[in-house]
What we know:
heterotrimer; A: mainly alpha; MetI-like fold; 2 domains; 74% helix; C: alpha/beta; CATH 3.40.190.10; 8-stranded mixed β-sheet; two-stranded antiparallel ribbon
Amino acid sequence: xxRAVTTQRKTIxxxxxxxxxxxxxxxxxxxxxLSFKAEGDAIKTPIEVLTSAWTFENYGVVQERSDYSKHxxxxxxxxxxxxxxGLIIAVPAAWSMAFVPSKxxxxxxxxxxxxxxxPAVGVLYPIYLVFIRLGLLDTRAGLVIVLMLIxxxxxxxxxxxxxKEIPGEILEAARxxxxxxxxxxxxxxxxMAIPGMASTVLLNVxxxxxxxxxxxxxxxxxxxxxxxxxxxYSSPEGLFYAKLSAAxxxxxxxxxxxxWFSQKQLxxxxxxxxxx
Amino acid sequence: xxxxxxxxxxxxxxxxxxxxxxxxxxxxxxxxLFFSFKKxxxxxxxxxxxxxxxxxxxxxxxxxxxxxxxxxxxxTLLIVGGVLVITVVLGILLAILLxxxxxxxxxxxxxxxxxxxxxxxxxxxxxxxxxxxxxNGFLAHVFRFFGATPVEWLSQASLQSIIMIVSxxxxxFATLILLTAIQSLDSEQLEAAEMDGxxxxxxxxxxxxxxxxxxxxxxxxxxxxxxxxxxxxxFVTTGGAFGTRTLTYLIxxxxxxxxxxxxxxxxxxxxxxxxxxxxxxLMRIVGKNLDA
Amino acid sequence: xxxxxxxxxxxxxxxxxxxxxxAETLTIATVNNGDMIRMQGLTxxxxxxxxxxxxxxxxxxxxxxxxxxxxxxTKGGAxxxxxxxxxxxxIWGANGWLVPLDDLSAEYDADDILPAMAGGLSHDxxxxxxxxxxxxxxxxxxxxxxxxxxLEMPDAPTWTFIREAAAAMTDRxxxxxxxxxxxxxxxxxxxxxxxxxxxxxxxxxxxMDWNAQFDTQPWKDTLEFxxxxxxxxxxxxxxxxxxxxxLSLFQQGKCGMWIDATVAASFVTNPNDSTVADxxxxxxxxxxxxxxxxxxxxAWALAIPAGSxxxxxxxxxxxxxxxxxxxxxxxxxxxxxxxxxxxxxSLYENPNYMDVPFAKMxxxxxxxxxxxxxxxxxxxxxxxxxxxxxxxxGIATEVSQEFSAVYAGQQSVDEALxxxxxxxxxxxxxxxxx
Lengths: 276, 292, 434
């Protein structure tokens, strides 16, 4: 990193990067702005929108209409529940793939990924019938399982790539010292894989939080997360830009904030083994 | 190091994940296959309990012979391909830019990755109403401000609009992975090339691109898996009108709108076949980079 | 431990005494329309009266339909009450999936439900869903622009007059379009409008043998007239305009006329939302001298899935939500113009309500729509802007997508009609009609 950088070049970089960054971020910023505007002002020209009065009214209306906290807690439970469950199942699998590889390891990994290609809507009826039979309809437990299964291939793959980067000699040394398999995974492997685990958790929480097909179709009132909350704000009678914006902000803000605070971990680990 | 003992332990530890995914794949797959050979019209009172009529390959023939079948396959490939090209190309450029020294790098990175956290439903709703609406949308206001006629995005440029919305959502993902890869690039190697007077393009083609090959592969692979099944973005914006009906959406129309589960299941089998063709194709072209 | 158990028993006995043994929690799936959202806000009144709690599942129309249909066909039992329309009710009723509503209390006065609504929500004379509100469609027009154009709107205009008036009112320099109509794909959006319109042109979806009729002249006339009129006087981009978009355009003063759901009348005359609230007139939907007008008939209604464990509580809710008392409750809180319209005869005998400017025209529109006899030539189906057969929603959505492509200038009328014909016949064959 000893490259000499002229201030001029740094300035150009900064201007260009900020411009592009703001452009990409702009839609989200606009949602945020409109959510604080009166319904009548929200459809005006951008300049009129910016100069019009600010109000918290929309958030009040949205909160009164739908039970935000219920949907929010369901989203939290589903996203983290499915990720943790997935981790419990994926860690041993990824461990054995990384440290006891066989000829079929690569095939198994690819096959796992390919299960994600089954079009969800085609199997809605079968899954719905299974859910009824098992009494899982509109339960958080049922959705935690489904979301876990959807993301399991990604979790296994990510963990596998992190584990592979850990030199096998270290584990062997631990084993020489008399560590059991369980101890080996828990006390040697896991601490070394923490950055990878963190980004795995983050990515899967995001994916589970945003999953909108199963969470909408397998729930009613009790287990419905924020994806169902937002479904009650799309195209009602009349175009309600401000309320739609407020509801959208409420649906994406938690995950956005979490993502921002943890972006360092996310970036560090989100390699899928792409960096050697 | 792999003793017989650790091998069996390894199998045991892989078992839960494999069995669960096998179940998650096989139960629906078997049922889809089963339904695809049956006449199953739930609204006409057909149900598993009443027994379903066997119709052979009728559903398969009907699904392919509909005028909407081939267009839907091409639409699917266009959307997947379009989004892949946009996100990979822009992702590389953005990653290179973000790797340069600048002020406020962390904040710019936060701005760039933000769209990835937005739910597809929200993103589609917001783009459709707040931005692409030809009367009250932001873009319409901007066009009118410059004296131009607002574009009717979702009817006149429907496919492009959807590709754009989806690219906006996935560009952060591509950028992130590519950025991580670029950061691991040996800067001394680049500097040496710079000293030797290699022009920017040649440095990019001979040093940067090969280094990124593996990351690009990963981006393509993961995005393809997700893009093949995009649904909310189409459901919310055009509802499959104006040539935006993908194979997934066509299956949705058959199963849920027409309530013809048999026909839709046959479509599901075709979708699996298409996904596998795409997957094999991907493996052939880019799989070399992936020694996973 | 003993004390703890006793305390627990005591507490539960107490709670039983307070809420009553039969207190239930009802899960109700509903659509996110204004009247339903208002009902959610008034749920406390129901809970106070009966002790039952309500959990709402409020969804956008298309999501709602897909959600409740999956649940009812699989007997999932996720909902105790479903909000469904005039299209679903007779089909589901015929399949025995809904609890008959033939034993509602005398106080509820089921005979007060408008016959057109009760008829559309019944199968074989048994009511399966109670109308929460009903609607037809009618013309809403700007009285000031009509005057400026030197024209006068008859109570029952023809399509020829509407087309001329639209052209006369159009002033594109000032962003005024003579007429705004639905062009958006979807059987309940543009599909509903064009089907209702085609009735007045003498078209029909099926002949008596369930053959698609898109190869007939009346359909060609309908589409050509619609496309011609909209390109002369319609707003840009009408191919993606549905109810919401047109409502917004009309409220912003950008439409001379708008033919759409009668419930929109209360939105366009509400000064809080509409810039033209005091300049709106109403007329019957146009005809073509063939004896059928182009207005539809629809109701959002509440139904109980068969097999529900909470039928009694659900019936109590339905009686509450669709009662005369509920209408009075809304009137007392929000004014008469905002009560759910179109369901009960008594509402249109109420002098307070008949003072509302659009009340009479709404009733007249509802009364001229006849789901059992909607087409000029005989047709085998029930329904005005739809055919109440299970396959219709899927077919009509695809057909309306072809039509929308015409509106967007992407294909010709003939191409769209040929595709519509093929799509429809293919789907009917798949469903076993042939």
